[in-house]
């Protein structure tokens, strides 16, 4: 007997070196990631493919800063932090945390 088990997949995206997005490109990124944008028609013919069984949710807002990601592993847990360099008026000796998420076996424990 094959027993199906749910599993959790976490996708972490951090693009540290890139050209800045224009205001129009930022609006497009925000719109496609919004609830309304997620309801737009998909590129599959209706009725021909089963809908995906996986669900996803965004744990943190998108950022448009050049950033660097840090993943700290400790046995069966992990903490992900997205950092950016200091800007005018901030301590230039330290990175600024944009988003931190603790990854555990309980998906409801995610923080940002």
Describe this structure in words.
This protein has one domain. The relative contact order is 0.17. It starts with 22 loop residues before the first helix and ends in a 9-residue tail after the last strand. The chain is built from two helices and three strands, in the order H-H-E-E-E. It is α+β, with helices and mostly antiparallel strands. The model has no long low-confidence stretch (mean pLDDT 76).
Indicate the proportion of strand residues. 15-25%
Number of domains: 1
Low-pLDDT residue intervals, each spanning 5 or more residues: none
The separation of the N and C termini measures 40 Å
| Bulk shape | flat
Any chance you could write out the topology, listing elements then pairs?
Layout: H1 23-32, H2 35-38, E1 67-74, E2 77-84, E3 96-103
Short summary of the structure?
The protein has 112 residues and is α+β, with helices and mostly antiparallel strands.
Keywords:
112 residues; alpha+beta; 3-stranded antiparallel β-sheet; 2 helices; 3 strands; 21% strand
């Amino acid at each position: 007997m094959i027993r199906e088990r749910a599993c959790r997949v976490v996708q972490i995206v951090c693009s540290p070196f890139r050209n800045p997005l224009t205001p129009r490109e930022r609006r497009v990124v925000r719109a496609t990631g919004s609830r309304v944008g997620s309801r737009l028609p998909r590129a599959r013919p209706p009725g021909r493919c089963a809908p995906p069984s996986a669900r996803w949710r965004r744990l943190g807002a998108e950022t448009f800063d050049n950033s660097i990601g840090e993943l700290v592993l400790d046995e069966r847990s992990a903490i992900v932090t997205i950092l950016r360099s200091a800007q005018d008026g901030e301590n230039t000796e330290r990175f600024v945390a944009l988003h931190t998420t603790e990854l555990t076996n309980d998906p409801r424990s995610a923080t940002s």
